[in-house]
Amino acid sequence: MATALTLAGARADHSEAAVARLDALAARHGRALPQSVRHWYSLADATAILEPERRADHVYPVDDLGQPEAYYWPTDDEGWPEGLEEQEEREFDPMAHGLLPFLQENQGVYCLAVQLDGSEDPPVLLSWDGVQPGTWTAHADTFSQWVYTRVWDFALHRGASMLEATAERVTAAELEALEQVLEVRPATRSDREEQRRFAGPRDEQRLLLLSPWGGTGGWSVYLWASTAELLVELVHTVRPVLALGEVHAGSHEPSDTVKRAMERLRA
After folding, report:
1. pTM (two decimals)
2. Model confidence over 106-152: pLDDT tens digits?
3. Contacts made by residues 110-118, CB under 8 angstroms, sequence distance 24+
4. Euclidean distance between CA atoms 69 and 111, whole angstroms
5. In this model, does residue 79 exceed pLDDT 80?
6. Per-residue pLDDT averaged across 231-255, rounded?
7. Left, alpha or beta for 217 (phi > 0: left; psi -120 to 50: alpha)?
8. DSSP3 helix / strand / coil % (the chain, rounded to 5)
9. What three-state secondary structure class fits 233?
10. 127 in Cβ contact with 111 (< 8 Å)
11. Residues 59-74: pLDDT tens digits?
12. How many other CB atoms are found less than 10 A from the CB of residue 90?
């Protein structure tokens, strides 16, 4: 998480008010919070660092942690009992089920929660269609790893500053080959896709691979670097390993870095 703060250019200023709220939350539910969660949410800018842009996902502020959640039963992908005409709104206490939700995707597609398994840095789980007592799947190995990947991904999610391509398939051998030329960063996953990350020195080059949903289509390849020179170098590093399709700007209004990189790639 210290590395995440450095990547975000953020300060590690702690908030006594946040610490008091975390203490009250633990006392109210009669269970200690994981140390990694306490450490992050004691920061004054904990939420803003993870949600720096408008219209981004809803990262829970410390006041919203551990609250009861409402969900609709049955969910859209469940079979409806005979005679039921509309969904029922029900209440769910996630902490009573060992879950601490902390993020809702901005269109409500999925949510993330820490699994309260008694460890100091527990895994992060994912649920589709909101917080509910349904199936939660593995997403990140630890909360601190998720924080790191969240900040690391910001550069790639700003389309004006990255290049995009596709790869028809990415084999285990190709992933191993990438590990020889780039540094491995933590992966995240769901039951629909896997996100693999690789980086150049000091994270000034970043490569994100998204596996196809449901095993169909090609892998999505996102490339970002801090300069045009490093971005071109990253493309030349990846191309001998992956069978990339056309490499193009990730936005209709690419950044100057991307424009210069594309000019050099076309030359």
Report:
1. 0.92
2. 888 899 999 999 999 999 999 987 888 878 999 999 999 999 999 99
3. 110/190, 112/139, 112/146, 114/34, 114/37, 114/143, 116/31, 116/34
4. 12
5. no
6. 95
7. left
8. 35, 25, 40
9. helix
10. yes
11. 999 999 999 988 777 7
12. 12
Rounded Cα distance between 244 and 163, Å, is 12
**CA dist 36 → 43, 121, 145 (Å):** 11, 5, 10
CA distance 189 to 196: 8
State which amino acid sits at residue 248.
Answer: H
CA 105 from chain centre, in angstroms, equals 10
Return the bridge partners of 184, or none.
198
- End-to-end alpha carbon distance in the chain: 41
Residue 164 is inside which H or E element, if any? Answer: strand 163-167
| Bridge partners, 43 (sequence order) | 14
- Which ranges of 158-255 does DSSP label H, i.e. alpha helix? 172-181, 228-238
Residue owning tokens 């990547």: 7
CB 134 within 8 Å of CB 156 = no
pLDDT band of 55, cuts 50, 70, 90: low
Torsion, Cα of 233, 9, 112, 222 (10° steps): -10
- Spatial distance between the Cα atoms of 225 and 161, rounded to a whole number of angstroms: 8
Give dist(CA 203, CA 207) in Å, integer.
Answer: 10
Torsional class of 202: left (φ above 0), alpha (ψ -120 to 50), beta (otherwise): left
Look up tokens 């917080």; give the residue: 131
